[in-house]
Request: fold
Amino acid sequence: MRALISDAIDPAPTDDVVPGTFPGGATLRAGERGWVMLDERPGAGLGRALVWARRERLGELHLIVDDVEAAGVLARRAELFGRPPRVWQVEGRSIRPAEPVDPPPALEPPAIAREQVALLHGAGVEVVVERGEIRGEVLGLEVARVVVDDRDATGETTARIEVGVGRHDREAFAMLHGEVPTAEALAGVVDQVRRHRASDAEAHPLGRLAAERWLRSIVMADPAAVGARQLAPAEPTIARDGVKDVAPAVAFGDDPDGTPVVVACSVGIDLDLVPAAADARQALQPEARLVVVVPERDAHPVTRRLVDDLARPAELHPVPGDWRHGLRGRPRPR
Reply:
């Protein structure tokens, strides 16, 4: 890393350089300046790097990324902080300043896919659109997806609903229960997921997956608890690869005064929560209020400081007690 930065950083680091380890990368420190090389999931590495810089009491932070797309995402997110780090992109044996890239545009599902929405609503699932795909969720867990088939020999396309939790489950479900009518199959999966995602249910994988999206569904059912009038699901700026991926769940709406509101929900300590939340606000409505919702136990001082470090104000909303009971602070069950 030292060889990469020597030609680009002025003044170049001298002999007091201290290398270090970093989750998914490596660091160098020289006095009050620090460099982080992000190798693993670099697009979601800004929060980790900011926390390291604060812990090391650095006055200047540089991020170095080999992935062109991730470098653009990091450069965009860095600008949302009051003291933005500089982002560099590796180019051969040197580095150059990374240029921010726009978030991906929202895609509209095909009209033929929209025709399946009524069946999803009829089954009582929440309809979510991400990357132009229509998904059905139960308390934040995907249980169905509308799939548009390729054109057939006549040039016609068809849309159908695949039932199951995640891609592999949908494929297995189709092989084992392909003869079951879609409405019946969907009702069975919805019932099963609801039983395992009840607040008093015993521990089960269906109760652990996509917890942040479960919290979002609770917030959308009680928007007044976070000062909003209405909220609807919104797309994250970095797409998830599957139901096991953990990423802040975003909602967009307004408050009683008509002011736009962006809400970002997370369960557990996610160091990329605040950069991702600010990025979502910038993509949806830069002037919106931003409310970051986490269980009280996850309102770590690190997250609070990241919220305070944003260039535009944001609010941290800890949910007291067991969030699965709702947002009003009901006590944990014994």
Observations:
- The radius of gyration is 22 Å.
